[in-house]
Amino acid sequence: MHRDARFAKAAEFIWTHARLLERRVFACRFLDDDAQLVVNALRAYQNRDGGFGHALEPDLRGPDSQPVFVDFALTTLREVGARDAEIGGRVCDFLASIAAPSGAVPAILATAHQHPRAAHWNGDSALQPSLNFTSGIAGQLHWQGIQHPWLERATAYCWAELRNSVIGDAHSLRSALVFLDNFGGERRTRELTEQLATQLPTADFFLADVPVTRYGLTPLHFAPSPRTPERRLFSDSLIEAHLDDLAARQAADGGWPIFWDAPGETARNEWRARWTLDALSVLRAYGRL
User: Fold this and answer.
1) 3-state class of 117 per DSSP?
2) In terms of DSSP H, where are the helices of the chain?
3) CA distances to 61, 88, 144, 199, 224 from 180, in Å
4) CA–CA separation, 134 vs 243, rounded Å?
């Protein structure tokens, strides 16, 4: 498909199926719209306790605040270059209220199991505080420039876990690298980044090979732009192969597919719109659009 046709079909899919939030992100990234409009759309998902809810991550359909929703919100802000001290401060207040004494937070709280959800959220492991979402959220909050007692505790926890743990899955590795990206000038950051890089090839859910036909994280999830620090972890040939594969996965309706069962057609379309938005961003960053 020609680049212009690819973009036009993807844009049509987003305008047809995306939530207001993703439509605002699309307009900001590709139509030079104001990032503050993304912030405004995101605020509708923030609860009185400071956390985010209301199916912000489409696989969890409940209204209650969840750490995974916080991660989704902060990632969205960073993607459009928006810093908001009020959102960041209120998020920290929420996280402080549900964190373990170490500062670690789980992916979800038990309240998530009271509402419709994708099957992969049914187990108890996501209820346990862990490095995965703690490091990703802490990294995003450092990028926001937030100072908060909970963030201090969580940061100390992340450094200790990174020094002493072997990380076995790609999601946790990506979150850890998000955290480390905020401390790029430090020797310990360089050492830990190299350590994590050696763990990536054998990590669960890491997809090094193409074509991609199942759920997982590819090199492009770690290096969505050639300017990303993690780009140096992958060869040029591997990145090019995944770019070819990513472009080839665009469906006839203009959107990109997902490789898991979402909890209903609405959630499926919301996720596909998000993945379509992300695919366009990656392809443009590497000069493929």
Assistant:
1) strand
2) 3-17, 20-30, 35-43, 67-79, 85-98, 131-144, 149-164, 170-180, 187-199, 219-222, 236-248, 265-285
3) 31, 19, 14, 15, 17
4) 30
Q: What is the pLDDT of residue 184?
A: 78
Residue 4 has pLDDT above 90, yes or no: no
- Is residue 14 a contact partner of residue 6, using CB atoms and an 8 Å limit? no
Contact indicator for 176, 196 with CB cutoff of 8 Å: yes
C-alpha torsion angle, residues 277, 278, 282, 288 (rounded to 10): -30
Q: Backbone phi, then psi, for 105, in 5-degree steps?
A: -125, 155
| Burial class, 1, CB count within 10 angstroms (exposed 0-12 / middle 13-18 / buried 19+) | middle
**pLDDT tens per residue, range 28-57:** 999 999 999 999 999 999 999 999 999 999
Mean pLDDT of 109-137: 97
Q: What is the pLDDT at residue 117?
A: 98
Say what the pTM is: 0.96
Give the CA angle between residues 50, 112, 60 to the nearest 5°: 90
Domain boundaries, the chain: 1-17+204-289, 34-202
- Cα 246 vs. chain centroid, distance in angstroms? 18
pLDDT tier for residue 222 given thresholds of 50, 70 and 90: very high
